[in-house]
Design a protein that fits this description.
It is globular, with a radius of gyration of 15 Å. It contains 5 helices and 8 strands. By secondary structure, the protein is of the alpha/beta class. β6 and β7 form a beta hairpin. The strands form 2 sheets. Strands 3-2-1-4-8-5 form a 6-stranded mixed β-sheet, sandwiched between helices.
Length: 156
Amino acid sequence: MPKISIITPAYNCEKYLEQSVDSVLSQTWKDWELLIIDDCSKDNTYVLMQKLAKKDKRIRILQNPQNSGAAATRNNGVRQAAGEWIAFIDSDDYIKPDFISRYMQEFENSAMDVVVGGYIRDENGRFTEYPADISDDEAIWVNVSACLKMYRRKFL
């Protein structure tokens, strides 16, 4: 059973999904599973998901029976997840290679149930985790997103 389950809702995201998945594959923390859940995409997202799942046995792909939206898709992922910890990464976002290890360090040294990070928009308008030198004033709006946080499963 993996320590971390990363859940990625996918809808019409064939343009960005591979970069997002590659950022998970590049993690320095190796004990994870990635659940990519297609929300009835109209493009070739699911075909790409099948190709990506062949890259690594830790990638599992699922499909919603009907289009349900990102929140319901995340909830579906939580129900299917095997990990003790849950993280959400959207299909058009990416994470730094030490994302999981830094968050797990926070969990393992405390009794916290949620670790919150932040993000900024890159030159293409996509989100990436913010570097440590960005001030709290610049990143405080981050907390409304489900992404770039890690949750203790029992907390959810």
